[in-house]
Structure formats: C-alpha cells, structure tokens
Design goal:
The structure is a single chain. The chain has one helix and no strands. By secondary structure, it is mostly helical. The longest helix has 50 residues, at 6-55. The N and C termini lie far apart (104 Å).
Length: 82
Amino acid sequence: MGFSSIWHWVIVLLIVLILFGRGRIAEMMGDFGKGISSFKKGLNETEDTAAKAVQIEPPAAAPAPTEAPAAAPADKTDTTGA
C-alpha cells in the first residue's frame, strides 16, 4: 500500500494545517501568487522591450545649416576685483 491513498493525503493535509494554521498557509499562497504575477510582468516587459528595439528607426538626417551662427559679443566685466 503506497502513499497514494486519499486517507493518507487527508492526514497529511490535517497535519500541515495544524502546524502552519490557516492564516499562514493563505499568506504563503498570496506571496506565491504575487511572485508568479511579478514573473509574468517581467516576461511581458522583456518582450515589449525586444519589440521596441526591432521597431526603432534611425533618426532622419538634419538639414545642413545655411548660415554660420553669429558670434556672441564679448563680455566686458571687470575681473580684477578692484
């Protein structure tokens, strides 16, 4: 007789409930669910990033300037401190 009987599983379940309590098991399952959703979110972000990397096009070339910019006037402030 192996460990596949329904009564064996019921007894194991009762022992686990006694040791951990209902609240602790619910908390562990909640943490497990959060971990799975975080993992799925990470996978989706990776796929989105890869899709954006494929869609990126090089920027259009900027037109050549027609005139040189005017030189700024020299600043004539006294730097001697007197």
